[in-house]
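Practice problem: predict the structure.
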Amino acid sequence: MAKYITSHLDLLAEPRLGLTRIQLLLSQTYPRVILDRTDSTDIDLARYAPILAHGRSDRWVLDPVGESLMNPVRAHPCGVPRIHVPNHIRLVWEELEKLKDAGQKKLKGPGYPNQGVKLGTQLAYFMVVEGVEAGNCQKLVLRATAEQFAVQAYFEALSGFSVVFSGLMLKRQLALLGRHDVRLSFVRVANVEDLLQEADSGSGSHVDDAASTWHQVTNEKVAATVFVCF
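Answer:
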């Protein structure tokens, strides 16, 4: 089916009739855009882990591993952009909107018991953007709220670029991205509640000064884990 969208918030709206892939028309004259709500897989995570580890937001790169900062690049728009918005992001947005409407600080309900404050303060949103070059040129985008995520995804589509992979991580783990003294591994959790439990446990949260000093002495990278939900 196809419908027009007039706002970035339409990207966070609940899908109708159980549809996961919807053709969207941004305007009467603009090419079609695919809103993709299908689930990503661990294969996708492995594919996009290098650009996530790269950690620099809003920057096009050719090679996330061996990037030369002296040679900035830019992708080219594609014919039919695709916007990937996982249901986890939509559900967080819905819960936060309920919070706002109720004027409450905590939610009580299935899935997010008493987690309202954490939903608004502890989660970060990421997306990987590509153009016609696909994986040969990518951009990582990090945002602090679901609405900021939707605004950026909407902007990318209007500019002709695809959001090919997206999800959530913990804000406090953003500091691990882009570090040359850290060997990151990305671990997928099943849902947002599990992600917030990782926040409570404090696991994989930081690389301490002693470990960083060890890297300086031995040139060996310190292992760290970043938890993601998509």
